Amino acid sequence: MTDPTDADAMTDLEGRPFAGRGQWTEPTTEQVAPGVHRVPLPLPMDGLRAINVYVLETPGGLTCIDAGWAIEVGRELLGEGLRRIGHDVRDVTRFLVTHAHRDHYTQAVTVRREFGNATIDLGVGDKPTLDLFNSGDLEADPTVARLRMGGAFDVAAGWEDMFRGADPDISMWELPDRWLEEEQQIELGDRVLHAVPTPGHTAGHFVFADHERGVLFAGDHVLPTITPSVGFELVFADNPLAAFLGSLRKVREMPDLVLLPAHGPVAPSSHARVDELLAHHDDRLEQCLAKVGPDGSTAHDVATELTWTRHERLFSELDAFNGAMATMETMVHLDLLASRGRLVRDEVDGTAVYRPR
């Protein structure tokens, strides 16, 4: 049976195999559907290594699904990728950004500023995060407080050390031209994209389906080889894992489409990967429940009892960034269990403690 996440089993319009797991990050311009090209751009200081920007050719210019991180090498490689298909960055007239993480959003802002003819669409659920960036009130990283809520005090200190002095460039977080507020059809010449809100990874995440061409621009909602983080945003949304699982079911109810993810190779079946992600979280919820001690546990307590990544690493093997992500990921699972009545959640001196019911 073919692995549903194996892009090597797929070919482009000319019969050439798509870039697989080991090749998808390499600089290229890969046609993934009629009039649709994948341009991977590098990410600094990020285990994901690259982000896929999808370029759609339309009569009114180029539309990009996501934009990349606003760094010099990303801008250069975006230009090189577009020149391979006979275009230039100035030909981009619209960015449809799946969510407001910096590797997806910030280069859209800098390209808009550079040429003045590109517009940006973003899900309105991410408005609180952008409002916070632009308020002048971002004096402390909310992630530190979130980690302390999870009982991960040493991890919180490591997070502060890692980002001390690295204040965000607020100019990269200008507001979009349009807020996407609900499920809708977006017309791009003779192409129609079905824009679908999929909160969870962030509160404002959207995916875009091109049903005629059979592809799903999935952003970080459905990734082919890893599980997306949930709840990692500056303005924390209530019970984001419940929203994420609901969004996965929403995508499962759509037609089965070729998966065009923001990170990772092209995959043949959105349904197959959604089923895997739902099964993973069902299993993870049971693992988290089993690790809660009879006298109560924090998210950090539980996280240290679990293994991480597909390599089954111990928590002690993770660096400060990934230890923080693991703690926050565990906390959203415990919060969901509490909301379902399977755990009791109390706050003790600002720290969440979970107990068996």
UniProtKB/TrEMBL annotation:
Lineage: superkingdom: Bacteria
Can you give the residue ranges of the Metallo-beta-lactamase domain?
A: 50-263
Query: Tell me, what's a Pfam family for it?
Result: Lactamase_B
Q: Where is the composition biased (Acidic residues)?
A: 1-11
- Annotated spans, Disordered: 1-24
What is this protein identified as? Glyoxylase-like metal-dependent hydrolase (Beta-lactamase superfamily II)
